[in-house]
Amino acid sequence: MQGKIADFSIPDIFQLVFSQGKSGSLAISGNERVTIFLFSGGKIADVQPDRRESKSLLGAMLRDAGYLTDSELQRFLSSQGPGGKKIGEILVEKGKLSKEVLARYLVLQVKECLFDALTLREGEYRFEGFAVRPSAWGEPIRPDVLLMEGMQFLDEYPRYRAIFPPGDFRVTRKKGERVDPYAFSEEERILWKALDFSEEPERAYRKACLTGFEGVKALAALLQRGLIEVFAAEPGDRVDPVRRLRDEIRSRRRFDAIRMAMWGAAVAAAAVWVYRGILTQGAFRTFTTWVDFF
Fold first, then answer.
1. In this structure, how many other beta carbons lie within 10 angstroms of the beta carbon of residue 54?
2. Positive or negative, the Cα torsion across 176, 178, 182, 183?
3. Within this chain, do residues 19 and 125 fall inside the same structural domain, yes or no?
4. Is residue 156 part of a domain?
5. What percent of the chain has a predicted confidence (pLDDT) above 90?
6. 130-143, pLDDT tens digit by residue?
7. Are residue 227 and residue 258 in the same domain, yes or no?
8. pTM of the shown model
9. Where are the beta strands (DSSP E) in the chain?
10. Residue 120 domain-assigned?
11. Which of 37, 115, 139, 190 is the most buried (most CB within 10 A)?
């Protein structure tokens, strides 16, 4: 089964695969990228984002959420090898995250890839049938449920996004505000907590394990409650908790090096003072007399 998206829409393709309980891969190409959805019994078992779309890759998502650093991500990716274990399996084995956390981010990855595919107006699709092993990290996802969320995303996301400054912006929690977390929706509550992690909305969404649509919707609700402040990002401004920590460590090391250098200079000055004191004529005569006596 293959064709053009303009002739057979993305929702219709997913509904057909689901209604017929098919297993296999559905490749959707458009905007110079290819995303592959794996189906098991008509349900979505996994997704393989285009590697050119790095923000949708699981490793990048977990890095942005603060579960690992850039260097750790590169080290784990290099340990995969061709045909090796997936990055998620490696991270669970190494104790970097739990199976439950991995399952949540895999669902998030499927959602974001599907929402992105729904925005395509031109492109092609190709379905190839074969047996697909269900995911070991969670139940396969019903595409009809995700499509309902996806339609809501297409209808409402532009309206919520228009509330905030165009381009990059930053968000901070207002200080001194008393809040009742139980009055929040679930998305508002976890995003409120995630804003302590980063002022960058996208990274806060990642930390909260929310799609961009869920995140901006919750952010709009917090803004309406008067609990957050929003401001446009300065050019080149990027608040990165990992980089901030590295800078703090580097600053401390620099301070320690300066302090050690000052101590070294003080010891050297003291040594010179003692050395000069010993080599005065009076001290030298006393020393030679002492040596002759013995």
1. 12
2. negative
3. yes
4. no
5. 61
6. 999 877 677 899 99
7. no
8. 0.77
9. 2-4, 24-30, 33-40, 43-48, 124-129, 169-173, 228-232
10. yes
11. 37
Instruction: Please tell me whether residues 36 and 69 are part of one structural domain.
Output: yes
Q: Which pair of tokens denotes residue 38?
A: 């794996």
204 vs 158: CA distance, rounded Å: 19
- Hey, what amino acid is at 44? I
Distance CA 55, CA 61 (A): 6
Judged by DSSP in three states, 116 sits in: helix
Sequence-distant (6+) residues with CB within 8 A of 13 are: 26, 28, 125, 127
Domain that holds residue 249: 241-293
pLDDT tens for 3-37 read 999 999 999 999 999 999 999 999 999 988 999 99
Question: Which residues, 6+ apart, have CB-to-CB distance to 163 below 8 Å?
Answer: 220, 223
- Please tell me the predicted confidence (pLDDT) of residue 96: 87
Determine the Cα–Cα distance for residues 41 and 164; give it in Å rounded to an integer.
41
Whether 257 and 129 share a structural domain: no
Residues 205 and 263 in one domain: no
pLDDT score of 269 = 44
pLDDT at position 260: 53
